[in-house]
Design a protein that fits this description.
- It is built from 10 helices and 4 strands, in the order E-H-E-H-E-E-H-H-H-H-H-H-H-H.
- By secondary structure, the chain is mainly alpha-helical.
- The structure holds glutathione.
C-alpha cells in the first residue's frame, strides 16, 4: 500500500473537491497542498501535471481527478467503482457527462458572478502558504483577466452555463424518478461523488470544505439560480449526498 499521500489543489477547485472527497470517503490520511492560482502551476509541473488536482504518493502520481479516483479504486477495489457489468455503460456515460459538461459549466457560471477580489479571496486562499496570500492583491488583476479569458466569461456566460447545468440536472432528475437511492442504484459510488462535487458551486452545500458565502451577499441572479438548483430533485439529491457521505477529514 502506498504511503505519504499528498493532494495538490486550488482550494475552491471543484475537481479538487472530488478527489478530496474520495480520499476522505476511503479514510486515507493525506496532506492537502493548497495553492492559489497561478502558484499551483509550480507544484503540478514538478509531477508532470498542468491542472489541479494532482495526487502524489511514495509510489505513484495521478494528474487528473478521474485518474485519482481510479488509482484509489485499484488500492481499495470496489469501494468507488462498482463492477456489475450491467451498470458499466451508465457509469461511464454519467462520469463523462459530469466531468466534461457539468464541471465546466458550474465553474463558468460561478466565475461569471464572483470574479471580484472580495468574493474570491477566501475561496482561493484557504490553506495556501502565507506568502501566496500576501501576493493575492498584486496578482489578482492579472490572474482575474486570465480566468475571464480561459473560461470565456462574458455578459451572457452565466445564463448560457446555467442552461447547460439545467440539462445535466434534468438527466439526473430522470434517473432519480424511479426512486433509486444513488445514481447507479443502491450503492454510493464515485459517480455520486463526481456529480455532487462538480454540482457544488451552484448548490453551496454547508458541509463543503469551503464554507458557502452567505447568499444575501451574492448577486441577486446568482441567488436565484442557486435557490432554483437547490429545489430540483438532482439538487436535493446532491445536498443529501453531502449530508450523508461527506465524512470529516483526516488530514495529516
Ligand atoms: N480534467 C481535469 C480538470 C481539472 C481542472 O479543470 N482544474 C482546474 C481547477 S477547477 C485548474 O487546475 N485550473 C487551472 C489551470 O488549468 O492551470 C480533472 O478532472 O482533474
Amino acid at each position: 500500500m502506498p504511503t505519504n499521500f499528498r493532494l495538490i489543489t486550488i482550494p475552491v477547485s471543484h475537481y479538487s473537491e472530488k478527489a478530496r472527497w474520495a480520499l476522505d470517503y476511503l479514510q486515507i490520511p493525506y496532506q492537502e497542498m493548497a495553492h492559489m492560482p497561478p502558484f499551483h502551476r509550480n507544484a503540478t509541473k514538478k509531477h508532470g501535471g498542468t491542472s489541479v488536482p494532482v495526487l502524489v504518493t511514495d509510489t505513484g502520481v495521478a494528474t487528473d481527478s478521474t485518474d485519482i479516483l481510479r488509482y484509489l479504486d485499484r488500492l481499495y477495489p470496489e469501494k468507488l467503482y462498482p463492477i456489475d457489468p450491467k451498470i458499466q455503460l451508465l457509469s461511464t456515460e454519467l462520469e463523462t457527462l459530469f466531468n466534461s459538461t457539468l464541471g465546466v459549466h458550474t465553474r463558468r457560471w460561478g466565475y461569471s458572478y464572483i470574479i471580484t477580489p472580495k468574493l474570491l479571496y477566501p475561496k482561493w486562499t484557504l490553506g495556501v502558504p502565507f506568502w501566496e496570500k500576501l501576493l493575492f492583491p498584486i496578482i489578482f488583476p492579472k490572474v482575474g483577466k486570465i480566468v475571464r479569458s480561459n473560461f470565456d466569461i462574458t455578459d451572457t456566460s452565466a445564463t448560457e452555463s446555467c442552461r447547460e447545468i439545467e440539462i445535466v440536472f434534468d438527466r439526473v432528475d430522470g434517473l432519480l424518478a424511479d426512486g433509486r437511492k444513488y445514481l447507479l442504484g443502491d450503492r454510493f459510488s464515485a459517480i455520486d461523488i463526481t456529480f455532487a462535487a462538480l454540482a457544488a458551486p451552484i448548490l453551496q452545500p454547508p458541509e463543503h470544505h469551503i464554507k458557502p458565502t452567505p447568499l444575501d451577499v451574492l448577486p441577486t441572479q446568482m441567488q436565484t439560480d442557486i435557490r432554483k438548483a437547490q429545489a430540483t430533485p438532482a439538487g436535493k439529491f446532491a445536498l443529501r449526498l453531502y449530508q450523508e457521505h461527506r465524512y470529516p477529514v483526516d488530514r495529516i
